[in-house]
Fold Neuronal membrane glycoprotein M6-a.
Amino acid sequence: MSKYTFQRPEMEMPLQNSHYIPSRETLGRYSEYSLHSSYKIRAGDAASTNSVACTTRIPYATLIAALLCFTGIGIFCGTMYRGATLSALMMDQVFHLYIGWLETIKTVLVLIAAGMGALTLMIIFVGFLATGATRRRMYKAWRTRVGGRISCAVFMGIIYILQFFWIFVLGFLVIATFVMTVFWKMCSSTQVQDYHQCIDLTQFHFLFPQSTRIDYLKICETRDIKFFCRDFVEKSEFMFVMGTVGVILILISLVHYLMCLSANYAHIRDHEKFEELQELQLLQDTDFATSKERF
């Protein structure tokens, strides 16, 4: 055998006995243990290595964002579904109107919850692929790296558009909460509670459909006042406040998603440089050990 041939069995020697043989720490800094199967790793070290490898494969930041998103979606859809039901009952029993699109809102809320849930699961999947050792295994080829970068860019664009939608929803809920607060102040006024005066909503006629009769905007009967104030306004105000909190959580999660996807995009893009650095370091260590064997 040529004297310039690198002897692989030499690598099985104790790494601390020779100053000129590449150490396990040097190679381990740039490679996985699976790439150097000749090393004899003790059982305890292997278990510790496996546990560390499992924890480094988990995208914690993406999971935190997903938790915020699921919480916000659950609060928003639950409260708004209840709010749409109360609004339909109020329009029917107090103002004698039937608003068909309120039933459509319930279906839209279900679709929003399903869509945001599916988007969250897909982003979590991308996060797992772009984290830790999984990234090193999945994005070795040039095509897979390009595909990973495109997927991150697409999700970033979708989330960026969704932010404008949820900002619009937040503005609507803030206005609705303000209106419900004004209604509740009218219901709790002394004139209504003690003197049983009518609740005059004619100044808010622009909030109601054009087909609403003006005399229906004056609530005078005790039954209607109780239903309007206790059963609708009081509960709806709480629903709108909680819905606003849910939208704020969703917006925070979307910003968090953008940060996570940007980091994943950068990791996938820089993975090619990491692979080149890994190969260069391995070649340098190999050439260094081979040159010392000549002497």
